[in-house]
Amino acid sequence: MEDVLADDGEPLICILEKMLLAPRQSSNSQSHAIFRTQCTINGKVCDLLIDNGWTKNVISRAVVQNMQLNTSKNPNPYKISWVKKGMEISVTESYGVTFSIGKKYVCDVLCDVVKMDVCHLIFGRPWQFDVGATYDCRAHVYAFEWKGTYSFYQDIAHAELPTGLPPLSNIQHQIDLLTGSSLPNLPHYRLNPKEQNILQGLVEELLEKQLIQISRSPCAVPTLLVLKKGGSWRMCIDSRTINKITVKYIFPIPRIEELLDQLTEEGVHMDSTKVAVILDWPTLTTFFEVHSFLSLTNFYRKFIKNFSLLMAPVTECLKSKEFRRGNEQQLSFEAVKKAISSAPVLSLLNFDKLFIVDTNASSLGVGAVLSQEGKPIAFFSEKLCPAHQKCDNKTLQYINSQRTVNRMHARWVMFLQRFSFTIKHKPGSNNKIADALSRKRILLAKLQTEITGMECLKELHFEDPDFGIIWKQCHEEIGGSEYMIRHGYVFKKNLLCIPVSSWRPQLTHEAHGGGLAAHFGKENTLQQLQTCFFWPRLRKDVFCMVDSCPICQAYKGGA
Questions:
Q1: Beta strands 121-123 and 44-50: pairing type?
Q2: 500-513: b or e for each residue (b if 16 or more CB lie within 10 Å)?
Q3: Which of 160-164, 210-214, 261-265 has the lowest mean pLDDT?
Q4: For the packed helices 287-298 and 307-316, what is the interaxial angle rounded to 10 degrees?
Q5: Which end of the chain is more exposed for a tag (fewer CB within 10 A), N or C?
Q6: For position 301, what pLDDT does the model report?
Q7: pTM metric for this prediction
Q8: Correct CATH for 437-555 of 3.40.50.850, 3.40.50.1980, 1.20.1260.10, 1.10.340.70
Q9: Of the given ranges (36-40, 190-194, 301-305, 543-547), which has the lowest mean pLDDT?
Q10: Any idea which fold 193-244 has?
Q11: Are 397 and 421 spatial neighbours (Cβ–Cβ below 8 Å)?
């Protein structure tokens, strides 16, 4: 069972009249209270009221007008008179509200639009009936099953803790203190009368349930109260002085990698429940959500090829003081979720067989794939700092034959001498295992700064005679690995595909005679375009353009 607390965020600002003008004294009793909480609609926090005696689900017209929601006609219009004092209200519209409470609970409810000033939303019997809600009047709590969660944990989740401690077992836990240390005996923190009564009540409740007992030990540490989101209080023990004199736990914890090496099954795959949580993760809106997403996905980085490069735009937003999410961060967020959903099953390593490590480096980061017999065992990726981005990976094949090396170089040479290996440089055009995602991102960033209006290419791919079918196959994940979609553009390997449009002659003209180009010949112009772009009949288009260039005809006598 999960406690779903009220949402906290940007509130919805509407004008609401006060129904009760006479002041009322506050009371801790729940006997006259109506269940109130807060939910989120379109990123705005709204007040939600649940009423057992109300026969409809309604939403305030102020919410509809403020958020500019599109309503529909109510098939069964009616009139009410008690919500808005002194007038009768006709209910003729309805709206399907999608709201959320917390990070997990999301629900769609059909509500009637009512001009009211009680709150933003009122859920009555229809919503309670649909979700099968059970209301505890004294605890003032609604409980219902959502996606099987309640029924799955119902046998171990109790509304109240059982009385008494569990039976004694053969193994008893004890805290070992450092030899010669003195036990702390500290006074309690100062509390006001209200906090003192709350703390006394918590202690008496624990004593009554026999979960604690009166201590006569000379050791004493203080307690303090922490206010929870729901308005209740949590008692916390300040054990810092005890922790300072406690013998640290020094049992060697086995590494996850070593445990995986000892497995004897077919392979290693990710936990399906964790994958489902990642795929259902909502859009990142705060630094806290980014850290939570990184913590969960980082656990599975060995399954994902070039994980650091995929996640780089998301981690970049953590460097700023204010959270800013752009299109690049959203594309990175979706790319990571897609990569996790299609992650391969990793093979178990065999120390009797040859290991192959394929690496890929760019100005953004490095990536590596450890494999045996063509099957991946683990992936590694790391984003490079500015100093490491200047390194040349081609020179690594001469690392053992260089005569003069610096201190860091010598340290790595000594480490690598422990292994028997052979280094072979593989050009980027032949390196198909280590994905060149970073090269595509750098290419797009470079082109978008040099050429304006490139965003319109995304709209041309879908109906293009050359790439329309390829676009559809890439979206449906059909066909070979030669084509792929990255950041909304179609790529053939590392080349940006240009659809049939005025872009083809414009790019050809720019490569031949635009900017600093000196009206290269056919082959040089073709080579300039082939470093970044691809389209069918590219060679023919270049040759025709160069042959028809008036400057080349006049001054060079033909190209």
A1: parallel
A2: eeebbeebbebbbb
A3: 261-265
A4: 170
A5: N
A6: 78
A7: 0.33
A8: 1.10.340.70
A9: 301-305
A10: HIV Type 1 Reverse Transcriptase; Chain A, domain 1 (3.10.10)
A11: no
